[in-house]
Structure formats: C-alpha cells, structure tokens
C-alpha cells in the first residue's frame, strides 16, 4: 500500500511543478496559443495522483498489493504515464519554442497510451480475482425490493 501512497504523492508534486513550468515557460517566451503543456498538469494529477489514491483505497479494501500481478500493474501503469507525459512535455515545449517536433513523438506518445492501457487491464484483472465470482460466496448485497401497496 505504501507504494501507491508514494506514487500518488510523487504525482501530486510533479503535477504542481508541471503547472508552474507551463505558466512560467510560456510567460518567459511570450507565447500565446495552444500547447500540450496546458494539459500535462491535469494528466499528472488525474492519472497519477487521483489514480493512485483510488488504487490505494481499492488495495485497502481488497488486498491487491504484494502480488506479482500488482507489481506488473504498478510498473506498467507508471511507465505508461511517464512515456505519455514526457512526450507531451517534448511536444508542448517545442510548440512554445517554435521548433518542429518530430513525428516520432506522436508515435511514442501512442505507445505510452498503450502501455497505460495494459496497466489498467492488469489492475482490472487483479481486482476481478480479488472480488471473486458473483453468486458463490460473493460479498455483493442482494437487490432489495420495496413492498407493493
């Protein structure tokens, strides 16, 4: 569980720093317009910080950590965020500087999204195993019906 807490905390710090970078970098270069730097902040806070806070709560409830599958999810998801956000920083900074950004940046960002998706699939498979099948000894409550009349 500590890994999820530390990851969430790290992404919170990176999210705040990236927001500061966006504001100061565009101001220093007198840039007015759209750039990928504007959404790096929200990606780090939403996918990173909030994502790992949710995983932390799920881990507390279902005991996800400590398994090989959780470790695979953890590193795959983090790698996906790192690749995606890095390419957003490269593209956004290049836009602000007015330089041509290589087409490979888009391909690498797509790879980052793919790795991120694999991480999410691993999380859902692990969560599904921990919840167990519906019906047999499941902790899911049965539907409550109101009396008629």
Question: How would you sum up this structure, described in words?
Answer:
With 149 residues, this protein is an all-alpha fold. It has one domain. Helix content is 74%, strand content 0%. It contains four helices and no strands. Helix 3 runs antiparallel to helix 4. The longest helix is centred in the middle third of the chain and has 30 residues, at 68-97. The N and C termini lie far apart (49 Å). The model has no long low-confidence stretch (mean pLDDT 92).
Write a short abstract of this structure.
This protein is an all-alpha fold and 149 residues long. It contains 4 helices and no strands.
Largest sheet properties:
none
Which class best fits the helix and strand makeup?
Answer: mainly alpha
Amount of beta strand: under 5%
Helix content: over 70%
Number of domains: 1
Mean pLDDT: 92
Low-confidence stretches: none
Q: How would you spell out the order of helices and strands?
A: HHHH
Distance from first to last alpha carbon: 49 Å
Number of helices in the DSSP assignment: 4
What descriptive keywords fit this protein?
single chain, 4 helices, 149 residues, mainly alpha
Please describe the topology of this protein:
Blueprint: H1 2-28, H2 37-62, H3 68-97, H4 104-131
């Amino acid at each position: 569980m500590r890994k999820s807490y530390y990851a969430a905390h790290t992404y919170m710090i990176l999210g705040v720093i990236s927001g500061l970078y966006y504001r100061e970098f565009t101001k220093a270069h007198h840039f007015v317009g759209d750039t990928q730097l504007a959404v790096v902040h929200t990606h780090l806070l939403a996918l990173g910080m909030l994502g790992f806070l949710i995983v932390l709560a799920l881990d507390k409830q279902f005991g996800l950590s400590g398994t090989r599958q959780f470790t695979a999810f953890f590193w795959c998801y983090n790698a996906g965020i790192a690749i995606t956000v890095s390419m957003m920083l490269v593209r956004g900074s290049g836009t602000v500087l007015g330089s041509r950004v290589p087409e490979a940046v888009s391909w690498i960002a797509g790879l980052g999204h793919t790795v991120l998706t694999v991480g999410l699939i691993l999380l859902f498979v692990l969560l599904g195993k921990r919840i167990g099948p519906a019906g047999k000894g499941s902790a899911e409550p049965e539907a409550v019906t109101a009396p008629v009349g």
